[in-house]
Specification:
225 residues, alpha+beta
Amino acid sequence: MSSACSTRRDRWLVFLVMLVMLALVACLAPPEAEEDAGTAAVAFAGSGSGSGSTDPLPEPIVDAGVDDARMDDASLSPDAGCVAQPEPTCAAAPPGASPRDPGIPGGGQCRGACGAACPATCRTLPAVTICHEWQTADCRWHAKVCTYDVIECGSHAGCRTHDACYDACVGSFFPAGCRRRCDLDCVVLHGADRCAAWMNGDPPYDSWLPYASAPAVSSYDSTCY
């Protein structure tokens, strides 16, 4: 009987000790923890999308690295940012042809053709038109049209050699005497009759050479068409 009572007494003592410990823990807890918990609960409740929320709307985020000028309609147009191309120029002659007037010191024209300058025996060819395009910084396209009048003249190796000889005489000490030597060389190599025919621009020829006049230039604001 006494052992049973002792056992019940021990259980009550253990129970009382546990109650005392729980009370001590509750008393020793800091009041700030309860306040933080309450504040967190209120903040969580206010973050909802309900109509009862009084929190102000967040300010829009502005990227400070974007220049305001980029918002200009003109700068956002597809024409912005083009690189200006150099304006093309017309060549002295179209491909495959030589200039009628090469601008050499002696003033000779149609060099290599048989005859003086560009003789009447030359034939007229269709005009040649070449169009060049380029773009300016405003992204606009422009076209430059080069139109050449073209002729072709009979040529021979003897005529080409004779013309080259005449051109070399320009810088000589006695140009007139130098040219007479060129004439004599032609007669010695090809005979007087043939050289006389070549002097008038007549055959025999071994080829026909094309020559172009200085280009007529026109421009318009568009691509070539």
